[in-house]
Amino acid sequence: MNWDIVIGLEIHVELSTASKIFCGCSTAFGGEPNTQCCPVCIGMPGTLPVLNTRVLDFAVKAGLALNCQITRYNKFDRKNYFYPDLPKAYQISQLHLPFARNGFVDIGDKKIRIHEIHMEEDAGKLIHSSGKTFLDYNRCGVPLIEIVTEPDMTCAEEVIACLTSVKSMLEYLEVSDCQMQEGSLRADVNLSVKPKGSTEFGTRTEMKNINSFKAIERAIAYESRRQIEVISSGGEISQETRRWDDNAGESFVMRSKENAPDYRYFPDPDIPPISFTDEFIASIQENQPEFAKEKAARFAAEYGLTPKDAAILTTDKNTAQLYEETAKSASPKETAVWMLGEMMYLASTTGAKPKITPPPFAEFINAVTGGKTNRTAGKQVFEYVFGGGEDVAGYIEKHGLAQINDDASIAAIVEKVLAANADAVAEYKSGKEKAFGFLVGQTMKELKGKGNPALVNAALKKHFTES
Amino acid sequence: MMNLTALQLGEKIRAGEIGVAEAVTAALGAAENSRTNAFVTLADKEKCLSQADTIQKKISTGELTSPLAGVPIGIKDNICTSGLRTTCASKMLDNFIPPYSATAVEKLENAGLIVVGKLNMDEFGMGSTSETSHYGAVKNPHDENRVSGGSSGGCAAAVAANETFISLGTDTGGSIRQPASYCGVTGFKPTYGAVSRHGLIAYASSLDQIGPIAKNAADCAEIHKIIAGRDPKDGTSLDLPETACIKGVIGKKIAIPEDCLIGNGVDEDVKNNILETAKKFTEMGASIDYIKLPFNEYVIPAYYIIATAEASSNLSRYDGVKYGFRSEGANSLLQTYNATRAEGFGMEVIKRILLGTFVLSSGFYDAYYKKALQVKALIRKHFAETFYNYDAILCPVAPTTAPILGESLSDPLKMYLSDIFTVTANLAGLPAISIPCGKDANGLPIGAQIISDVMKDKVVLGLAQAYQGVQQ
Prior knowledge:
By secondary structure, chain A is an alpha+beta fold. Chain A folds into 3 domains: about 5-285, no CATH class; about 290-400, no CATH class; about 405-465, Arc Repressor Mutant, subunit A. Chain A is about 40% helix and about 20% strand. In chain A, helix 5 (about 290-305) crosses helix 6 (about 305-315). By secondary structure, chain B is α/β, with parallel strands linked by helices. Chain B has a single domain (about 1-470), classed as Amidase signature (AS) domain (Amidase signature (AS) enzymes, Alpha-Beta Complex). In chain B, a hairpin with a 2-residue loop joins strand 4 (about 140) and strand 5. The interface of A and B includes residues 43, 47, 50, 82 and 88 of A.
């Protein structure tokens, strides 16, 4: 039998406001445990949460970008449960009136509908070490939005496309770092299967603790296979929450529906309701940035890029920014060539984050297009710029990577190469065009890759036409 | 000295007749020798005296100008005092020393008042008699076999027994007004939000409010002036409009709800004294009308649903993980939670947490909590309409005078019902005051309650001051 896979997502995004949602503590990632908390975020007796209104700006930006209707009258609710990472024993969230509803994300030609987005506070972290459990409350009270999609996805590719698109928009908005490894973007996967074409949904499971796109792919493959096997062998899927273990490559039951906690939601009496005015929403809408889709179209038109190249260069905000800043003062085509080629290559092979900035990058591109260095030697220079190097001219000079543009030196080497490769010369003369390329290569080799390719070509051509 | 009002003491301090250190020493001595079990913790004497020294100097240089500068004050033990143990009269917080002070306490200290001790109460404010305290019941100074009322029993008893000049209490369903009534002193609950709740350990967040218990309304007004105002640490706090304290009573329209005099277990003595008080107000130039409050039968259920629901959530943080009491010997997380909470909380608190947990449970929310919020909204609306026609409402604080110790806890339903005249002000967020208006046949004090519209704290305080001015 063939099967349809039905997937919905709950995407948790940490907002990158400087301070937490209900107190003034820093939200910076990676601080020593319990150095970024105060009596309010650890819920000491008598303290009260006070809403950081920056969170509202950030949230509404995200809501509008994801094409949602913004709820004018907003409230926060308490979600009550006991766990040591939750010091008040309730999480301030939104159940009854989420701030955004009925949106969508475009992935290619398909729309993934968004059911709702709500604001909430993050919990702390348990650290298990040598048989003991420690608590780190730094993350307590970091603002989150939870984006809940409809079950509109059918495979891992669509899920990743949806997440990529959401991530791209939130990065353009500068409302989140969207770092999956640091947990500032987390996605829970709700998945069910049904016989192909059936209109009735199967029972779904929810998978948590999926920390990378790769893991999402694996988790979806595992869970859909598991569900199909259970059903095929006459079993039934039970509605449950499962924990993905990326090392084991398996998911495990966390809790079943019967054990689902009763969160006893009720409106938080400490936080007065919030009303968004039409003016506020309009002012956010007016100041929305250019997102990937529009930017790609503009890049293609303005810089003469192919739609595919433009799309790659605009998916993430930093890449697009680097491109556009550089292309202002260097050849847009050459800039694209280096970014799509060497930069992506270095990033994927070394795993390093590019530290490249527009001014040295532009200087480098201009050195290539202006004949100060050539493509071959340029790779070494690019690596230097990629790693954050800024003194392009100095680096070329210091490492002798300047292009040799001196006719006499090139002619001398050409003579030497021709003398040493009589066979090739003879082959060329007998009509084998290929031999010419070989001779160019040999000359460049002698020139340690620094010869001006045009001059080398010309010198060889000159030799053959004159001889 | 201890029988002076706070304003009288402040005046003598400014006149140089009494030194601040002298006042502090007297207050600490009186607290130490309390015969009402009003105090849970006393402040460190050396620290108080050094504070007294600083304040004395600031008074002489004119840096401190509050009429209450140098006056010692007692604080209810659910209001945080930095460096001074704050227990909520619970075993759960027996060892809790907050590293911060409530905004109200900070403001009092900035005005030159000196915190000399923490006052006994019902555990976490849950009770109407101050008998549920982990540190034993507070006794009524008028009859030591009787309760002080609650939950701010320590505040009221200490003021009545001249064991403190003035005190700061809290009121969730009558917790300032009812003990003030039972002990024959004046207790004021401000408009909800008028005083920051930052540092007030929550019982029911939407109802809790800090306010003074004092020997008279003038003292209350002075404290209110200091502690009121919007606080960035409390999102629900607000600034009261700047209006002068009304002096006159002439032309004021006062309403008396009929149900507060007939039925509802109201003692004949209580009824007569309220009518007597009404007469005084008419003599002073006010007019009195009798009105009906149509929702009286829903007030107590709505109050106990909302209060316990919020309490069940507010008190969940006491889990033995971070601070306060932790049960020994538990060997799993769940056991730690269960044992800590079973051993750390008293019966009344456990009962209310269970009730609150029940009414918020899935499947019951609409029938209980949602309904209660609707009742609350109706009550607010009705009061808004009433105050369109009237300046204030006059009614008893409690149906009876102080009961015998132990009597109420054996009949909890009766105890809950005795809150009937006070909880409405909390549900509607109204300012309300309890003023002594006579005694019953047993010589026990009776309290009259004046309630006004939201933000009209000064109307309430003004009427009470006018009444007490005529009394003297």
